[in-house]
């Protein structure tokens, strides 16, 4: 069973606020604060929500005192909630100065469909507020006009004959592979620094030597 000390330590390791943990665990910030200051003793259901939130962030708990961040792991997320988890991770990473995020084969209509318009609008606004912190580079299919992240990202076109609908996100030592179907979206997130770095190299080769700058875009 998780201890208060482990919850605090896990938040510190991830640089999460109490509000961040509350959002990821579907709890209230007040509830998290009361757990951490000992005012409330959480039941097993609440602790399971907290542990699940940390597990999705690759935190592994050891006994009643320890914890560590897993590396080289793969987790699978699905549906609107899973997609939002990935976007929340990207938003958290974007808070870091000089963060670089790469999106290969962006499919704007499917992003809006599965994140839902109101949620994406919220995400777009919060990313816009951080745009001086990070660099987001997005490659889309030639002639695509729906550049939904245009206020905080740089776009380039990829030749139509080379484009396919496999979407890759690279951020914070992670490579997320997005698969869209008619009924859902499935995301495999690999946490492995060397793999992410290798993909970033290939992405930048395509960015510099294949993709075409879009007139009027940053």
Q: What's the gist of this structure?
A:
The chain is of the alpha+beta class. 43% of the residues lie in helices and 26% in strands. It has helices spanning 4-14, 18-25, 29-36, 44-56, 79-94, 108-115, 117-129, 193-209, and strands spanning 59-62, 66-69, 73-78, 99-106, 134-141, 154-158, 167-171, 174-180, 185-191, 212-213.
Oligomeric organization of the protein chains: single chain
Determine Rg (CA atoms, Å): 19 Å
Strand order of the largest sheet: 3-9-8-7-4-5-6-10
Pattern of helices and strands: HHHHEEEHEHHEEEEEHE
Terminal Cα separation, in Å?
A: 50 Å
Which CATH first-tier class of the largest domain would you pick? Alpha Beta
Give the % helix.
40-55%
Q: Let me know the CATH homologous superfamily of the largest domain.
A: Endonuclease Chain A
Shape: elongated
| Total of DSSP H or I helical runs spanning 4+ residues | 8
Describe the main β-sheet briefly: 8 strands, mixed
* Percent range for β-strand residues: 25-35%
Briefly note the structural class of the backbone. alpha+beta
């Amino acid at each position: 069973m998780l201890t208060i000390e482990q919850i605090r330590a896990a938040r510190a390791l991830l640089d999460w606020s109490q509000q961040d943990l509350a959002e990821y665990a579907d709890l209230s910030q007040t509830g998290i604060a009361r757990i951490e200051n000992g005012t409330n003793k959480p039941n097993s259901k609440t602790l399971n929500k907290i542990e699940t939130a940390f597990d999705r962030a690759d935190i592994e708990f050891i006994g009643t005192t320890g914890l560590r961040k897993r590396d080289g792991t793969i987790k699978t997320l699905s549906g609107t909630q899973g997609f939002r988890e990935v976007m929340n991770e990207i938003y958290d990473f974007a808070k870091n100065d000089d963060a670089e995020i790469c999106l290969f084969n962006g499919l704007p209509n499917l992003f809006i469909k599965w994140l839902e318009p109101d949620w994406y609008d919220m995400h777009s606004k919060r990313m816009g507020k951080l745009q001086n912190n990070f660099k987001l580079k997005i490659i889309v299919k030639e002639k695509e006009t729906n550049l939904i992240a245009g206020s905080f990202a740089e776009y380039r076109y990829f030749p139509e004959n080379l484009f396919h609908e496999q979407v890759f996100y690279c951020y914070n030592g992670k490579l997320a592979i997005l698969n869209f179907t008619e009924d859902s979206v499935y995301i495999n997130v690999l946490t492995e620094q060397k793999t992410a770095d290798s993909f970033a190299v290939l992405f930048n080769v395509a960015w510099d030597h294949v993709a075409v700058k879009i007139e009027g875009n940053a």
